[in-house]
Amino acid sequence: AKNAGGNRFVFYTRDMTDRAEARLRLESGLREAVAARSFELVYQPKVEASGGRLTGFEALIRWRHEGVPISPGDFIPVAEDTGLIIEIGRWVLEEACRTATRWALDHGPVPVAVNVSARQLADPGFARQVEQVLQRHGTPPDLLELEITETVIMKDVRHHLPTLNRLRALGVRIAIDDFGTGYSSLAYLRQLPVDVLKIDRSFVNDLPHAPDIASTVIALAQRLLLSTVAEGVETAEQRHWLAEAGCDCLQGYLISRPLSADAAEAMIMTAFAC
Ligand code: C2E
Ligand code: CA
Ligand code: CA
Ligand code: CA
């Protein structure tokens, strides 16, 4: 037993060293990627729940490290820890605005949503940065939507409120992402300058069998005159339930996986052709 314990110990430390090394490799890979701007954006469509009309896209970052695609769920937290998220976030914003402007000129207005991390929102220069990017690309502000997770906003509402107000004053729309997973005080929600609630995938996943949270979020949004987007819609039953319940927009693999900019543009051309 002693021996086995010893082996486990050796194995454990080796594992820790491997993990530390992997993390360091990821970090230096990220630094290089930031310097070389070697990220990509993919675009996942959102459609009206009733009728299916295209209403916009969410931009999602993609990164290949040493040829291997790394999930943003794995590298965004590292980017947050190291502060690299500030530069990555700026790149995402620039790229999304550049694309939205080009699409608007070539085809017609299609809003693009960008995910904003905790560090970005806490950056006192963030609202000014957004304003400058919009100006630089000649982007109509209503083509940009910012998705901020509920936990990030609610962790420090007082601190974030001035930034949110400044962003809203620019004319960009603000969505609360992953809504329902955190704790939102109703009183705060009423004061917040937000336009959209995105129902978290975990609650959409429960449909149609356990609809309580989804129903509550939709009712709340209607009460506060906010629009709703259901994320992670994967089945026709979910789509049907959401349309019946009065959810405004749908997003998920049932409608489309995230698309390359070219494939997204092809979808826009079809949408504007009719
Ligand atoms: P999120 O903002 O909640 O984005 C939705 C995630 O769900 C995306 O994963 C999307 O590809 C995935 N998804 C969409 N439809 C379905 C579906 O029907 N079923 C399932 N199972 N999944 C679906 P992705 O692209 O891997 O992004 C994961 C998270 O990483 C995002 O969650 C967001 O928090 C973060 N992220 C992605 N891009 C960016 C970015 O540019 N900046 C920042 N700060 N975060 C980002
Ligand atoms: Ca999002
Ligand atoms: Ca989400
Ligand atoms: Ca989510």
Quick summary:
One of its GO terms (cellular component) is membrane. The chain is α/β, with parallel strands linked by helices and 274 residues long.
The portion of residues assigned to helices is 55-70%
Which spans of ≥5 residues are poorly predicted at pLDDT below 50? Answer: none
Radius of gyration: 20 Å
Structural class: alpha/beta
Distinct compounds present: ligand C2E, calcium ion
**Oligomer kind:** single chain
**Number of discrete helical segments:** 12
If you average the pLDDT, what whole number results? 92
The spatial strand order of the largest sheet comes to: 1-2-4-5-6-7-8-9
Terminal CA distance: 73 Å
Estimate the strand proportion.
15-25%
Task: Describe the main β-sheet briefly.
Answer: 8 strands, mixed, barrel
List how many beta strands DSSP finds: 9
Task: Name the overall outline.
Answer: globular
What is the chain-wise order of helices and strands?
HEEEHHEHHEHHEHEHHEHEH
What does this structure look like?
- This protein is an alpha/beta fold and 274 residues long.
- Helices cover 55% and strands 19% of the residues.
- The chain has helices at residues 2-36, 72-82, 85-106, 118-122, 126-137, 150-155, 157-170, 186-191, 201-205, 212-223, 236-245, 261-273; strands at residues 40-48, 54-65, 68-70, 112-115, 144-149, 173-179, 196-199, 227-230, 249-250.
- The protein has an eight-stranded mixed beta barrel with strand order 1-2-4-5-6-7-8-9, surrounded by six helices.
- Strand 2 and strand 3 form a beta hairpin.
- Helix 1 packs across helix 2.
- The termini are far apart.
- The model has no long low-confidence stretch (mean pLDDT 92).
- One calcium ion (CA) is lined by residues 177-178, 198, 231.
- The site of ligand C2E has 21 residues, from strand 2, helix 2, helix 3 and strand 6.
- This is Diguanylate cyclase.
- Residues 23-272 form the EAL domain.
- It comes from Azospirillum thiophilum.
